[in-house]
Amino acid sequence: MAKYITSRRPKKLRGMKAFDYVNYIFLALCVLIMIYPFVFVLAGSFSDGNDYMGGGVWLVPRVWTLANYQVIVSDNMLWIAYKNTIIRTAAGSLLSLSFTSLVAYAMSRRELKFRRFFQAANLFTMFFGGGLIPYFVLINFLGLFDTFWVYIIPALYSVYNMIILSGGYSALSEELHDSAVIDGAGELRIWISIYMPLSKAVHATVLLWLMVGNWNAYYSTMIYTRGGENVILLQYYLMGVINKASYTPSVGGEILEKVTSKTVSYAAIIVAILPVLFVYPFLSKYFTKGVTVGSLKG
Q1: CATH number, domain at 164?
Q2: Distance (Å, rounded) from C-alpha 118 to C-alpha 116?
Q3: Share above pLDDT 90 across residues of the chain, in percent, rounded to a whole number
């Protein structure tokens, strides 16, 4: 009977060794460690504030309520920050991807004059910088301080993303380029019509990085703006909500009796990460493929 049961087990399970079981257990613990903070915040966002302050809410709320989300939805500044962040994420990511990929295409061409010099100059900027104060002076000198352009122009180009994109372009067959040149196509036409469509995985990977980075950014708002309505971003506003000892929402009545600054901040966190949760599954399938293709050649 035991032999029959063993033979009925899948081949994958029959071939597993002790190390495989330990590895699966370790990976399951890693997944749990990464998921639990989200579950904890989600439970707090749906909890009654007074009940939550009593402690003991770890997985699910004891007293369910939507009051925390009602407070967040009624906050006008939150939606202003949301709008600014969406604009920055969309415009900044697309412009940065376009500009960086254009440079990456040029760097992938071996016939580019002074190519080694440009490579060395780019790599130098990855390891050495002027520092915060000189950079702040430069931003102020260019007239970007406390303007929305401070989010767009300095982030147009990334050396690391250029290296990934350039590697993806270099992995394509050189015959494609030669055939296009024979047909009379210029370099810009070749990049737009041939290289970009054939490098969707690399572009999607870099676009995902840019979108997540722009969506989660708050440092540039804190340093290079005064945090006004025209430039405030969601994460910077969220940081202020979390750090406030007391939060004074613009609602009254029974809702205020059910919330605290802690539970409201949890609701704000959930609202802030929802777009990333919806967008990431559509781009994640390109992630591994894009990084692999982009690292084949340099």
Answers
A1: 1.10.3720.10
A2: 5
A3: 29
| Residue 211 in domain | yes
Which are the contacts of 173, defined by CB distance < 8 A and separation ≥ 6? none
Cα end-to-end distance, the chain, whole Å: 58
Taking a C-beta distance cutoff of 8 angstroms, is the pair 224, 145 a contact? yes
Q: Which two tokens stand for residue 137?
A: 């002076």
Domain that holds residue 143: 76-230+287-294
Task: Catalogue the long-range contacts made by 194-200 (C-beta closer than 8 Å, 24 or more residues apart).
Answer: 195/105, 195/169, 196/101, 198/172, 199/165, 199/168, 199/169, 199/172, 199/293, 200/286
**Total domain count, the chain:** 1
Identify whether 124 is part of a domain. Answer: yes
Instruction: Convert the pLDDT of each residue in 182-209 to its tens digit.
Output: 888 888 899 988 888 888 888 988 998 8
Q: Cα(198)–Cα(177) distance, rounded to whole angstroms?
A: 12
Is 190 contained in some domain?
yes
**Is residue 25 in some structural domain?**
no
pTM for the full model? Answer: 0.79
Asked whether residue 57 carries a pLDDT value surpassing 90, the answer given is no
